[in-house]
């Protein structure tokens, strides 16, 4: 029998502020970042049971992401995105995550610049 395709939970347009950048002017004050997360998991048990215990607690993930971002002082958006991917993969049910971190206003004439990573739970 073929393996069931993974379902997706989206956390979209999470607007946070943090220190991020390599230039001195970027490190003086917090800047806006926009975060989009897609958590891939088998949600079939939750669909049947209607119980939080059978799904991914995305509220808990969001709270941990906020706490991490707001206290971070990364130089690279890539590093910040990797940190968020690790947070999202902590719950055992999450098999894969797509993380998009955008830094509005980072480049003149561009609305935003972003880094997108896809990470999977390591095979056990």
Q: How would you describe what is shown here?
A:
- With 124 residues, this protein is an alpha+beta fold.
- It has a single domain, classed as 2-Layer Sandwich (GTP Cyclohydrolase I, domain 2).
- It is built from 4 helices and 5 strands, in the order βαβααβαββ.
- A hairpin with a 7-residue loop joins β4 (94-104) and β5 (112-120).
- The radius of gyration is 16 Å and the shape is elongated.
- The model has no long low-confidence stretch (mean pLDDT 95).
The major sheet is characterized as: 5 strands, mixed
**Which percent band covers the strand fraction?**
35-45%
What is the number of independent domains?
Answer: 1
CATH fold node name: GTP Cyclohydrolase I, domain 2
CATH class: Alpha Beta
Stretches where pLDDT is under 50 for at least 5 consecutive residues are: none
CATH architecture: 2-Layer Sandwich
Instruction: Please provide the ordered H/E string of secondary-structure elements.
Output: EHEHHEHEE
Overall body shape: elongated
* Main sheet strand line-up: 3-1-2-4-5
* DSSP, total strands: 5
Measured on Cα atoms, how large is the radius of gyration?
A: 16 Å
Looking at how many chains there are and whether they match, the oligomeric state comes to: single chain
Query: Class by helix and strand content?
Result: alpha+beta
Mean pLDDT across residues: 95
Count of discrete alpha- or pi-helical segments spanning 4 or more residues: 4
The span between the termini is 22 Å
């Amino acid at each position: 029998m073929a393996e069931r395709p993974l379902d997706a939970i989206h956390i979209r347009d999470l607007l946070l502020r943090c220190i991020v950048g390599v230039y001195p002017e970027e490190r003086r004050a917090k800047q806006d970042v926009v975060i989009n997360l897609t958590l891939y998991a088998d949600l079939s048990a939750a669909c049947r049971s209607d119980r939080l215990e059978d799904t991914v607690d995305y509220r808990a993930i969001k709270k941990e992401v906020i706490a991490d971002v707001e206290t971070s002082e990364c130089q690279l958006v890539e590093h910040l995105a990797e940190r968020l991917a690790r947070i999202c993969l902590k719950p055992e049910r999450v098999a894969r995550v797509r993380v998009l971190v955008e830094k509005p206003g980072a480049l003149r004439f561009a609305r935003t610049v972003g880094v997108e990573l896809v990470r999977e739970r390591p095979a056990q």
